[in-house]
Amino acid sequence: MKYLPIDADLFIQNRRRFIEQLKPSSIAVFNSNDIMPTSADGTHSFIQQTDLFYLSGIDQEESTLVICPDAREEKYREILFLKETNEQIALWEGQKYTKDEATAVSGIKTVCWNHEFNLIFRALVVQSERVYLNTNEHLRADDSVETRDRRFLRWCRSAFPLHHYRRTAPIMQNLRTIKSPLEVDLIKTAGNITDQAFRRLLGFIEPGVWEFEIEAEICHEFLRNRSRGPAFETIIASGVDSCTLHYVRNDKQCREGDLVLIDFGAEYANYAADVTRTVPVNGRFSKRQKDVYNAVLKVHKAAIRMLTPGNTLDEYTREVGQVMETELIGLGLLDAGEVKKQSEDKPLYKKYFPHGTSHHLGLDVHDYGDKYRKFEPGMVLTCEPGIYIKDEAIGVRIENNILITAGDPVDLTGTIPREADEIEDLMNE
């Protein structure tokens, strides 16, 4: 792996907390993601199933984690099943984990090869009353492709129809919402790499540069700092496309007088940063651009202060919306009288700020998190207000990654320049 070794204690403690949530006489199974094919004989780069990584640290295809806390033999209470290297695999793909290496990464003492799975699993499942299986229950999950977890679920229910089946998803959502100090450090590392990439861009962006050239500079800086690459598809949106929320074509030339909105984030050890900055292509904001930028920045800073324990996402969204209304009135985009008469269900600010302010961040960019759960210390959320004025070709979004604590929120990406004057100074050095 490109990233530096992670202390196995992270995964040991994650499994301990997971096991505490299981009912007696249970067995739980987590499968790796598949390697997805392209056309002909090609494949996409492998990305690990995040629940499996969270519990084991194993970053390899064709891997399975079995947890059976009440197994009669202690050695079978935690088992990793892995792909065994043979001469052909070693020749074409390179060496896979040895058993000792997998133990060092995960803290799991019992490591078996995949061909042993059926025999061992059958012996364990007949000792158990309940089978916990993993499914993707994210509200925006795309389940059009059948995963290894889904295939295993179908096989297991067919092979053992009389067991009581339960979901791991509620447990994993509850656990992963709160980040441990080591997880926070990994997210911060991803943010630091993103910071370096942004500073690189400030000396590179100028009229005539292409959006994909900006993207290439980002990728270069990510890779040279041990990132696998972007944590999500990078947005480089200049001119009027800065008002397109998920613009990913990145194929236009940046022109004099344009703003360019850059939504990007490095992945590090499977953990994501998610940052947005908006900069003037020529190195100087126009007065109107700066006014809009500073309005977004004001909302951004106010929203960060609201990320405190006890608040809820709905309450937070309403409070941010009120700050945004004030700024939009000040910019002449909303009428104060009309705002007073607006419907609560259809606030007028949504015309210029149509998306949410925050989402949970971690192993997934849109990480696990219950919208009804009150904010707690250890949660990491983005803070990303924006104003989009298509008629003026002005789209501004500012996004940082915030750790909720018992005291004041901690900005994990606070070193990345965001003041308009600082951005201008760095672009004109």
Features:
Creatine Amidinohydrolase, Chain A, domain 1, 16% strand, alpha+beta, Creatine Amidinohydrolase, six-stranded mixed beta sheet, 17 strands, 13 helices
Structure description:
Helix 1 crosses helix 2 and helix 10 runs antiparallel to helix 11. It is globular, with a radius of gyration of 24 Å. 40% of the residues are buried. Helix content is 35%, strand content 16%. It folds into 2 domains: 168 residues, Creatinase/prolidase N-terminal domain (Creatine Amidinohydrolase, Chain A, domain 1), CATH 3.40.350.10; 247 residues, Alpha-Beta Complex (Creatine Amidinohydrolase). The chain is built from 13 helices and 17 strands. Strand 5, helix 6 and strand 6 form a beta-alpha-beta unit. The two termini are 37 Å apart. The strands form 5 sheets. The protein has a 6-stranded mixed beta sheet with strand order 4-3-2-1-5-6, sandwiched between helices. Strands 7-10-11 form a 3-stranded antiparallel beta sheet. It is of the alpha+beta class and 429 residues long.
CATH-defined superfamily of the largest domain: Creatinase/methionine aminopeptidase superfamily
CA-to-CA gap between the ends?
37 Å
What level of helicity do the residues show?
Answer: 25-40%
Mean pLDDT: 97
What is the strand arrangement across the widest sheet? 4-3-2-1-5-6
> Mind describing the biggest β-sheet?
6 strands, mixed
| CATH class placement of the largest domain | Alpha Beta
**Which residues sit in consecutive blocks of at least 5 with pLDDT less than 50?**
none
Radius of gyration: 24 Å
- Helices and strands: which structural class? alpha+beta
Oligomer: single chain
Number of domain modules: 2
CATH architecture of the largest domain: Alpha-Beta Complex
